[in-house]
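Researcher: Let's try something more involved. This one mixes different molecule types, so please make sure each is placed in the same coordinate frame as the others.
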Amino acid sequence: MNRNQVHSILLSAFVLAAALGATNPAQAQDAKQPYAAMAPIEQYLMDRDAEIALARSAAPDSISHDAGVLVLTRHGFEAAIKGTNGFVCIVGRGWSSAADPDFWNPKVRVPMCANAAAARSYLLRITKITDLTLAGHTLAQVNDAMAVAVTSKELPPMEPGAMCYMMSKQGYGGDSAPHWPSHLMFFYSDTDPAVWGANLPGSPVIAVADPQERLTQFVITTQRWSDGTEAR
Amino acid sequence: MNRNQIHSILLSALAIAAALGATNPAHAQNAKQPYATMAPIEQYLMDRDGEIALARSAAPDAISHDATVVVLTRHGYETAVEGTNGWVCWVGRSWMAMFDHPEFWNPKVRAADCVNPPAARSVLPYAYKRTELILAGHSKLEVIAAIKAAIDKKELPVLEQGTVSYMMSKASYLTDYGNHNMPHLMFFQSEKNDAAWGANLTNSPVLAVNYWYLSADQYPQLKTFPPMSVFLIGVDKWSDGTPASPM
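Model: All components are placed in one shared frame. Result:
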């Protein structure tokens, strides 16, 4: 299972649907058609101030106001704001933060604010995937390169306590799951989802383990958006 | 229900209670009066089958059905049901709150809890030890000293990574405040401050407290204990799948 299949499953769980690509190859194939190749780079870029605002919307202002912010440029993510509280906010694009059919979808915008432990571990994967993608690598090549980088320890394992906020009302998760519910994510290396009781009937925890990246992502939905309004 | 009441509920219960005194000194003072000392032991005990059922109600049946269940006796917790999935369900009593918590001796507290295997190995031993010492009649100061000695002698384990606790029972009584209960998950971390998860900030869904104390003023020796923060995240359903009021 590759990284974007993992996203597919998480997204599907959110919308209470079956895993997109895994369970319905025909649908996945259809969905892939509109985004068979990379769009012009301009379509993935945003106005800098708007991207900063969108990134910050991932967490309550009490967290994101003092967070660092990364923004996408033609050559990868770069620091737009140096934070003071250890959190780093970023807007993920399709190649790092959506299901496989949306890998090249230029509309995808996924805001997240990672805590310091995740900024030093998980976010390095987001920026690495972005660098590879902007350098012209395909999805398969990105997946292979990421697996090698993890195995060779070029990319570190998840730090203890690594987590992120994904509580923005805005953003676009892709055509298969346009609007994600407000949630938190927790990142572990080499961890069985069962350890948290995830994915069992009645459990509030969703999780997927990606053996290639040796990454387990736990998701817990929250009851409010980052602005404090009720999320259901 | 306002945010401070939610804080009170989430934080007070679980061994890990809230900054009641910090957020509302008047309430804290009033709350201290009824529970100045330990009540007769009978008031903390339960019918064995009732306790097993309550303990299991902390998590969805998919988890608790195959969990080990421990129940309180006059001398401490003992295994009532041997499980097969590594999880342990139990019902915490008021003395699992921080040592300076105003409801430390509240005999009405019944905090149903199912902990995952890492928490069963590295958090529950602290609860068992504290309970045995209290039921043996030791004072808080003696309990604190004995736990510290056990930590120093490595009789108590180091906190493992990935500890999780489900507290989703409809039937728990966590505190005298508010609606007395709220479904939530808890995570134990060796953190010295709440900032690591952005806890306790405006609109953050994460609450955090120190495992040992509300304020170290009353028992300053607790400052020398290994740091342990408890992070709490409210969830929108009870363990039986019925919806809960939003936080």
